Amino acid sequence: MGYITTTFIVLVLIVTVIGMYVNGENGEFEDVGGGAPMAKTEQEALYSAIQGFVGNWWNGSDLYPDPCGWTPIQGVSCDLYDGLWYVTGLNIGSIHDNSLSCTSNPEFRPDLFQLTHVKSLAFFDCFHTPPVVIPSDNWTEFSGSLESLEFRSNPGLTGQIPATISQLHKLQSLVVIGNGFSGGLPATIGNLTRLKRLVLSGNGFSGEIGDNYGYLSELLIMDLSRNSLSGSIPLTFGGLTSLLKLDLSQNQLQGKIPYEISNLKNLTLLDLSNNNISGGLTKSIQEMSSLKELVLSRNPIGGDLMNIEWQNLITLMVLDLSSTRLTGGVPQTISKMKKLRFLGLNDNYLSGNLTPKLAELSELSSLYVYRNNLTGKLGFDRVFYGKMGRRFGAWNNSNLCFPVDLVTTSLGPFGVNACQDVTSSEVSVHDSGSKLGTFDSGYVASYSFSRYKFDRIWCVFTVVIFLDFVM
Ligand SMILES: *[C@@H]1O[C@H](CO)[C@@H](O)[C@H](O)[C@H]1NC(C)=O
Ligand SMILES: *[C@@H]1O[C@H](CO)[C@@H](O)[C@H](O)[C@H]1NC(C)=O
Ligand SMILES: *[C@@H]1O[C@H](CO)[C@@H](O)[C@H](O)[C@H]1NC(C)=O
Ligand SMILES: *[C@@H]1O[C@H](CO)[C@@H](O)[C@H](O)[C@H]1NC(C)=O
Ligand SMILES: *[C@@H]1O[C@H](CO)[C@@H](O)[C@H](O)[C@H]1NC(C)=O
Ligand SMILES: *[C@@H]1O[C@H](CO)[C@@H](O)[C@H](O)[C@H]1NC(C)=O
Ligand SMILES: *[C@@H]1O[C@H](CO)[C@@H](O)[C@H](O)[C@H]1NC(C)=O
């Protein structure tokens, strides 16, 4: 093949690959190529904004002369509007091979707010010491564009979230995890009526949750866990009718579980664990028929299990009511929740017999009833004990025993006395250890927010470099 032919083929290949990339970003099929221009103001604002976070050594015009075209910056995405490139995504911090790692004293420069087409803005592991407060001016510049705002693992971001973010009328996702924010939750978040995801977990937020958080009727995920929130759960939460996941765990919330919560017909996760919720289990729970995980552990809830129609919760897989000061018996209707995999009733004041019907739950892999006041002879068969092993925890129920014929087969449940020999001191008793450690990953609600798609850019580069080499 002649040199010119080879060059031509290579050029066609490059243009095709670049074209694929551009089309992928735009959802169009016109071959606009990498030749589109970028307004100088946009380009300089981008360089300066990044330099503020990454450090003055970073010279954008040197390193990335055509940041939306031939020399893309990992962490920046662009789109075409009226034939010009604009920045639509900016990811700051070392994540997913991102090139934009932060300097030790990053700053928000005003230039950031000139990038008025940005839809997605994310900061990961960027701010440490010295502490930085997010500027409250100029967020209104993003009001027509920003759909996703994320601050993750930035312990150096302190102070409050600026109330002005309520001007982000298009915001659909606000994720603020593991930063140093404190003070009250901004009441104005209740004005972000487009929000679908609100995650403010693992910060130092305190004070009450505003009633207007219940007006976010399009919300699918609300996670305010691991803060110091107090007061009660707003009754307005009954208005969050689209909600799929509600996690308010590890706060200091008190009062009752509001009856209005029964309006949340699509809820799959309700986690109120590690709070100060009291007032007994409301019957509203039985109306949330989509629930898969109900975690209320470590609350002084009190009351008993008898008045709930447990058989209504046909999709429930995780029921954790440990350390909730429950009294009374364990109703047989619990054995009608056929999807149940995890049942935690330990550390309560439950009494009476443990129904052997629980063995009918074919999916059940963990059953914890230790440290209660259960009595009588356990009625499970060998198959059940064999299947459950240590994941059946019934120790520290002083009047509970198991049939003596199991002693010889060493299938007897851990830490429980044989019925005919209750005075034996040979019975070993273990502490519960980590219950959750033995449970499969389905227990922990996990959210995946990965929206970093740089692989394709590297693909393009690999091809170009390879072809360069071949030529
Ligand atoms: C970046 O480099 C160019 C050329 O090397 C230089 O003219 C410019 O002043 C530098 N910019 C910054 C911000 O250092
Ligand atoms: C807000 O924008 C104005 C005008 O661009 C600028 O003077 C000011 O410093 C900006 N404030 C912040 C906090 O970025
Ligand atoms: C929030 O919305 C309320 C009405 O629901 C309005 O009165 C208030 O001014 C708004 N606040 C902000 C900061 O936009
Ligand atoms: C609940 O889920 C169903 C099916 O996924 C959906 O059709 C319905 O609109 C949802 N309800 C609300 C209030 O979002
Ligand atoms: C828990 O709530 C009760 C009221 O129900 C209150 O008296 C008590 O002080 C709260 N405890 C904590 C640790 O906040
Ligand atoms: C446990 O049950 C026995 C009767 O079976 C009762 O005497 C005792 O008070 C109960 N203990 C607790 C802590 O509820
Ligand atoms: C209950 O557990 C404790 C340790 O947590 C242990 O000291 C005690 O002996 C146990 N009691 C019974 C009756 O197994």
Task: Detail the topology: elements first, then pairings.
Elements: H1 3-26, H2 40-54, H3 60-63, E1 76-81, E2 84-92, E3 120-124, E4 132-133, E5 148-152, E6 157-158, E7 173-177, E8 182-184, E9 197-199, E10 204-208, E11 221-223, E12 228-230, E13 245-247, E14 254-255, E15 269-271, E16 276-277, E17 293-295, E18 318-320, E19 327-328, E20 342-344, E21 349-352, E22 366-368, E23 373-377, H4 382-388, E24 392-393, E25 399-402, E26 417-418, H5 455-470
Parallel strand pairs: 2-3, 3-5, 4-6, 5-7, 7-9, 8-10, 9-11, 10-12, 11-13, 13-15, 14-16, 15-17, 17-18, 18-20, 19-21, 20-22, 21-23, 22-24, 23-25, 25-26
Antiparallel strand pairs: 1-2
The structure holds 2-acetamido-2-deoxy-beta-D-glucopyranose (7 copies).
The site of one 2-acetamido-2-deoxy-beta-D-glucopyranose has 5 residues, from loops.
Question: What would you note in describing this structure?
Answer:
With 471 residues, the chain is α/β, with parallel strands linked by helices. It has a single domain (79-451), classed as Alpha-Beta Horseshoe (Leucine-rich repeat, LRR (right-handed beta-alpha superhelix)), CATH 3.80.10.10. It is built from five helices and 26 strands. It has helices spanning 3-26, 40-54, 60-63, 382-388, 455-470, and strands at residues 76-81, 84-92, 120-124, 132-133, 148-152, 157-158, 173-177, 182-184, 197-199, 204-208, 221-223, 228-230, 245-247, 254-255, 269-271, 276-277, 293-295, 318-320, 327-328, 342-344, 349-352, 366-368, 373-377, 392-393, 399-402, 417-418. It has a 14-stranded mixed β-sheet with strand order 1-2-3-5-7-9-11-13-15-17-18-20-22-24. The chain has a five-stranded parallel β-sheet with strand order 19-21-23-25-26, with no helix packed on it. A three-stranded parallel β-sheet has the order 8-10-12, with no helix packed on it. Helix 1 packs antiparallel against helix 5 (455-470). The N and C termini lie close together (12 Å). Bound molecules: 2-acetamido-2-deoxy-beta-D-glucopyranose (7 copies). One 2-acetamido-2-deoxy-beta-D-glucopyranose is lined by residues 110, 113, 135, 137-138.
